[in-house]
Amino acid sequence: MKKALIVLLAAIVVALALNVQAANVTFAPQAVKLKVAPGQTSRTALTVHGFSKSTYSLNFLVGSKFENGNIPSEWLTAAYLWLDSKAEGGVSSRNMDLVVTVPLGAKPGKYSGLVVPDDMQCSEPISSPGVIVAIEVSDS
What stretches of the chain adopt beta strand conformation (E)? Predict the structure, then answer.
């Protein structure tokens, strides 16, 4: 009896895990290249799209979470975004500026990384390829 209960509970957990949905968040463009001198600020426009098969409400930051890169976190100004499924077809979009400030004294060179959404309060997990950011810091 105890063994059957454990098997039943395990089956329920697996079934629930397989039904977990994730909202898809994409960026356009998918890659950004900026040339910035030390002590300067540059910005570029991004469009962020959200989609899910179910009703969703996504609150997240863009510019506060990086993967696979060498961009110092303090160089990007994080933007707070909110997307929901109330838009036609369940697709919601927002425009934003990705703002990069390279401090005085920054070492010239190439910096890059993958900027991904940082979940602040979402109704479901976020799946996103992120946006690739490449920054060339020029000589002063």
Answer: 23-28, 31-36, 41-51, 57-62, 66-67, 76-77, 79-84, 92-101, 109-115, 118-119, 126-127, 131-137
